[in-house]
Amino acid sequence: MFRAIRSYSQVVKYNNKVIPAPSKSVPDVNTFLTKIGRNAEEHIEIFENDWSKFWNAKSSDMKEWGIEPQTRKYVLAWKERFRQGQEPYHIAKGVKKNGGERNAKLHNALKRFEKLKAERELREKYMSEHKNF
């Protein structure tokens, strides 16, 4: 029995992303981080207001510099949007409704249970007060 020998070529990734030029509304890194919000401006000193350092920074670099994952993800997403030509603005974090999508059924059931419990207690209180009639 003969087995076919597969040859694998080395996978090489190139970072062909173009560094955009600063615009009038976003002349430097500080302005960019301030405009996108969500406390990204706390990390201004890490990039030293260096445009090329900011645009060449990868997620792994930001992790080494101590930027938390949520902020890292948000900044990387905005870097790509800016590359595509979108002007930066603050996007507020969403607020969970009914305990989140996965917990909505349980949350609503507990709310209904609490409402029924309160109605039952009120009914019992009313019946005990008007029992003499």
Short description:
This protein has 133 residues and is mainly alpha-helical. The chain has helices at 29-36, 44-47, 51-56, 59-64, 69-83, 104-129.
Strand fraction equals under 5%
**Shape, per Cα inertia axes:** elongated
Q: Span between N and C termini?
A: 98 Å
Task: Provide the low-confidence segments as ranges.
Answer: none
The major pleated sheet works out as: none
Family: Belongs to the mitochondrion-specific ribosomal protein mS41 family.
Subcellular location: Mitochondrion
Organism: Komagataella phaffii (strain GS115 / ATCC 20864)
Protein name: Small ribosomal subunit protein mS41
Would you mind describing this structure in some detail?
With 133 residues, the chain is mostly helical. It has a domain at 29-84. It is built from 6 helices and no strands. The protein has helices spanning 29-36, 44-47, 51-56, 59-64, 69-83, 104-129. The longest helix is centred in the C-terminal third of the chain and has 26 residues, at 104-129. The protein is elongated and about 85 Å long.
Provide key terms for this protein.
133 residues; mainly alpha; 6 helices; 49% helix; 0% strand
Outline the fold blueprint.
Blueprint: H1 29-36, H2 44-47, H3 51-56, H4 59-64, H5 69-83, H6 104-129
